[in-house]
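User: I'm writing a tutorial on reading structure tokens. Could you give me a worked example: one chain, its sequence, then its tokens, then a sentence or two explaining what the tokens reveal?
Assistant: Sure. Here is the example chain.
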Amino acid sequence: MSKQFAISDLDDVDRRLLRELQDDGTLSSSSLGERLSLTVTPCWRRRKRLEDLGVIVDYQANLDRRKLGYDVLAFAQVRFSDHSGELPDLFEQVIKDLPQVLTCHKVTGEADYVLTVLAADLESYGRFIEDVLRRQPGIASIQSSLALREVKAITRIPV
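And here are its predicted structure tokens:
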């Protein structure tokens, strides 16, 4: 990143560009330029600037988890017995390498961390809890909540 980003760095065209890319990250500079009424080069420069500023982090396809065999979406609340020391840091490193953990947030309240976890079924989620989470040192408790119905699941940020 070349400089610190400030929200004031975004003009209306940048905001429209970000909205368009959130809707379809595969847009070429030509197609994106058409939608923004820009020629290819200025459109590419704006996109590149937003990437360099770290506003655009990456591009990905959104997949349907159920069609890929992940029928269970769970939220695991993890609480540590000791919040000081290196055990929470070690836990974070382990979690970062687990593909079935979609998100991990250090939070306030009863839990120390909340994880969003995918599993094929309840049995495989149970194995994840027993074989992975419960084996992490320093964890005092794990409480799970299972998603019964997905009401809203988006990754788009309002700009």
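What the tokens reveal: DSSP finds five helices and four strands in the chain. The two ends are 21 Å apart (CA to CA).
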